[in-house]
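Predict the holo structure. Ligand: NAP.
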Amino acid sequence: MTEMTRRILLLSATVFGAGFLAACTSSPRQREDTPSSAPTIPAPVQTDGSGLAPRGELYGVDIYNTQHVADELRYIEENIQPLTDGDPKRILITGSTAGVGQFAAAYFLRRGHTVVAHARNAQREADVRRDLPGLEAVVVGDLLNLEETQALAEQISALGAFDVIIHNAGEYGLPNEQILNANSLSPYLLTAVVDAPREQMMYLTSDLHLSGDLKLDELRSGGTNVNYNDSKLHMATLATGVARRRPLLRVNAVAPGWVPTLMGVHNGPYAPDDLRESYMTLVLLTEDTYPGGQVTGQFLFQRKPETRVHPAVHDPESQDALLSAFAERTKVSLS
Ligand SMILES: NC(=O)c1ccc[n+]([C@@H]2O[C@H](COP(=O)([O-])OP(=O)(O)OC[C@H]3O[C@@H](n4cnc5c(N)ncnc54)[C@H](OP(=O)(O)O)[C@@H]3O)[C@@H](O)[C@H]2O)c1
């Protein structure tokens, strides 16, 4: 059995459940021997102004990141040096509160780029402000809710032009309707509504896109039967379609590999690919050091073009059909 077949079988066998981990927000109970006449004064809590404090230890191990992710974030913090030549960029990364998006944001900060992070809510904003000091700003919006995505697009637009936008956020293991909103319709809406960046866009996809389907009729008819694999085919085909529509921009799909972020270990502790490679292609593209040069319209995996790609991804008719189905569904056209 090939690695790919084994992986598809493993993931297909999963019964989808909702959410990753619930946060414990209850206050500790007061000790019974505390004298009632001497009330304890709680230590001041550092918050981001929202009234919420970041959860857990730095990088939120077992809350929103795995130990592997925390270790890699520490590696970045301790080893990555500022740019000595090359241009600092202004970069927006969706889903930069954990995993691959957080690696990219942490790396870019260490290099001296300007980074705007994205969090799904005020709690996650507080977490990422603690984990990634030096962010220019954090935009907030839950991509499960398309009205929040619209409001998020307005927040992003109000911040002015970016050099690079990375559409990284993604859900896994949720019902199809939620996967459709977070992984397909929201990245499309953000692409269509927010002004294009000056240089590049990237869309995070997966080798699981190979067993996806564009589900064009489902999109046009208002249906919700779009699973994770379909959504990752959407992301890759959106990238190549936008690359054709916007020839002055460089737009690529990037698969990070199967790596031990919380998403990667959702079905168990096995994730075979190199965690560092999950974000290095994003780094090389952003810093114009990708070995293949200034590419566009490609599907990349670990610093090179992926050879196993669904035929729809590089088919102009499929790209146009997907963009028009997204426009019909969301009532927002891509210029
Ligand atoms: N890990 C893998 O093996 C793997 C393989 C192939 C492709 N990918 C793709 O790589 C990308 C990053 O995945 P990852 O492994 O880094 O996953 P992760 O650790 O679960 O991180 C996902 C990020 O996206 C954010 N996000 C998810 N749903 C959101 C929503 N509804 N609204 C706002 N933000 C949301 C998360 O926010 P919270 O922290 O608040 O949840 C988090 O910041 C995804 O597009 C994924 O599909 C991952």
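The domain at 55-330 is CATH 3.40.50.720 (Rossmann fold). The chain has one domain: 55-330.
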